[in-house]
Amino acid sequence: MCGIFGQISINKKIKTKKKDFLKCLSYLSHRGPDDTGYFINSKIAFGHKRLSILDLSKNGKQPMMLNNGKFVLIYNGEIYNFKELKSELIKKGYKFKSKTDTEVLLYGLIDQGPRFIEKCNGMFAFAFYNNEKKTGYIFRDRIGIKPLFYSLYKGKLTFSSNIKSIHSYNKIKKTINLQSVSSFLSFRQPIRNETLFNNIFSLEPGSFIEIKNKKIKIKRYWKLEKFFKKNKIDKGEKFYVKRINELLKSSIKFRLISDVKVASLLSGGLDSTIISSIINEIIGKNFLAYSIGYTNKGYNEFAYSKLVSKKLNMKHKVFNSKAELYFKDMKKLIKLRDQPLTIPNEVTQFQLCREIKKKATVVLSGCGADELFCGYGRIFSSVDDYKRIKDINKISKKQKAIFLDNVKSRYGKINFKNNLDHFLSIYPYTKNNLKEKILSEKFNHKKINMNIKNYFKSIFSKIKTDNYSDKMQFFFQKFHLTGILEREDISSMAASVELRVPFLDHRIVEFAASLPLKYKIKTIKNDLSLTSDKTSEINDINKYILRKTYKDKIPKEILQRKKVGFPVPLHDWMKKKHIRKIIFSTLLSKKCKRRGIFNHDFIKKQLDNNKISKFVGDSRIYQDSIAAKLWMCFNLESFFKNHD
């Protein structure tokens, strides 16, 4: 795991001062504290910051080259099946000097070109240049586990694991993308491949950039949508139980390959417990597991994580976070990220990874299971709400009246034009009417909201059936998951820790897409008068196939737990005068007002002590609190201040 930064000529020669290049590369030092390497000529400038995981010797140094720069590679990530691929290349006559996956990738690209990546199982972002053919490639992994940003400027393409290096190197004028600011408040991330800055983009997962014949093309080498079949063949529960166990065990075995210490995250929830259980099965007891939470009542899951660690004989370490340290680390992380944070617990993840770094360099996470196996019951089960609304006359008169009251209470209306209209009523973290109160008059909300709707429509349209459930699942894996993965990567790499996600092995992603819905959500009792927010937690078993597969391997208390989030006690903290002062002084500062992003009259009213713990919607869930919205605004302004 590393950081990469560089530039490839499209139709202009590379002219750079070594000093300037290395300064921009240094902004990635937290991603790779173990070594620095670079290669510069008139066609490319490649830089690398190394976090040593495989082959800790100098043989793993990057950029990795052949024939004095005829072929050059810089690479961030892991290719887990590199040993198998290496054997194939050895049979073809290739000779290896190192034990790294980097060298396997280099020879594979030389031998087979971009097609080689289709054989690779892993997470990666890399740049490869063939000086003989004057052709460059920039790749990002299928799921988007590793970040890759780029910008086109004066006949050259600049790319990096973070945005700051690109800005500094190209000396691009920093202009805020207002569309992305609005999208951030709605969904905690920009739409499309945009970032918070104009003219800097994120390469989409499963894609690569080809630079050839003084032109660039962006191509997709993996398409998730093709695995969502119209007519899914039901192979039976026994088959799926056996298959998911085989795939997950194989995935974890791959992700335990390392020349440094490996640990696991343990929240006390289903997904991390399954991961820990399989690790225990593979390598035995006494592996490291880490948990973090808060001393505030209801803001930690230590009772469950301790239960699991005791049963599996783990070396379990528990940490508490406090308000004072939280806001201090929040500023640090925003600066390292060079983007606003996406959710409050991103800071907590960073704090935990900093503790992990004292003992281990690699950590396994249960990330991704909710998106693949319908873990968000309230949302995924809402498909049934939509179906009943469309077929309202098929339920009894008494149930119909109660159901429509529940529909109006949850959605604010009882009619939807189509499934996209229904989805847009429940997915946003901040509803449009509230977002428009928070933001200033400089935002063209009508145009922005139409762009958002068209983008969502384009994602839904990629599923070529009328299956609303498949469209929703595809959306969560295509859009929602990429935001989660970016924060997982950055919060861990900020502490120089490599985070691996076994559930997101592409074989498991493809398997999950082909799985009939009844193996993801099993309904025990169908109450036609209730909407999913009232019944899902009671009458549905989410991630059913996972619970069924591991029912004899994990504690019953974990197996029967319902989905819980990882909230931060912002409501409690913001009642404290010194914390409110931090928020107040930032959001009501002269600089913030001059920036013109927020409606400061509205913000000032929300800072009233009596409103901090109130909710902006009827659902009374964590993300609907005034404190959570103020955190998002404070987060955005803290980010903007870094660029003044």
Question: SSE layout and pairings?
Answer:
Layout: E1 2-9, H1 18-25, E2 35-40, E3 44-50, E4 64-66, E5 71-79, H2 82-91, H3 101-112, E6 122-130, E7 135-140, E8 149-153, E9 156-160, H4 163-170, H5 178-187, E10 201-202, E11 207-212, E12 215-220, H6 237-255, E13 262-265, H7 270-283, E14 288-294, H8 302-311, E15 315-321, H9 323-337, H10 345-356, E16 362-364, H11 369-372, H12 377-380, H13 382-390, H14 397-411, H15 419-424, H16 432-438, H17 445-460, H18 468-493, E17 498-500, H19 506-514, E18 521-523, H20 532-539, E19 540-542, H21 544-549, H22 556-559, H23 570-573, H24 577-587, H25 590-595, H26 600-606, H27 626-641
Would you give an account of this structure?
With 644 residues, the chain is α+β, with helices and mostly antiparallel strands. The chain has 3 domains: 2-178 and 191-222, 4-Layer Sandwich (Glutamine Phosphoribosylpyrophosphate, subunit 1, domain 1), CATH 3.60.20; 223-567, Rossmann fold; 570-641, no CATH class. Helices cover 43% and strands 16% of the residues. The chain contains 27 helices and 19 strands. A 6-stranded antiparallel β-sheet has the order 2-3-1-9-8-10, with helices on one face. Helix 2 packs across helix 3 (101-112). The protein starts with a strand and ends with a helix. The relative contact order is 0.11.
Notable traits:
644 residues; Glutamine Phosphoribosylpyrophosphate, subunit 1, domain 1; 6-stranded antiparallel β-sheet; 19 strands; 16% strand; globular
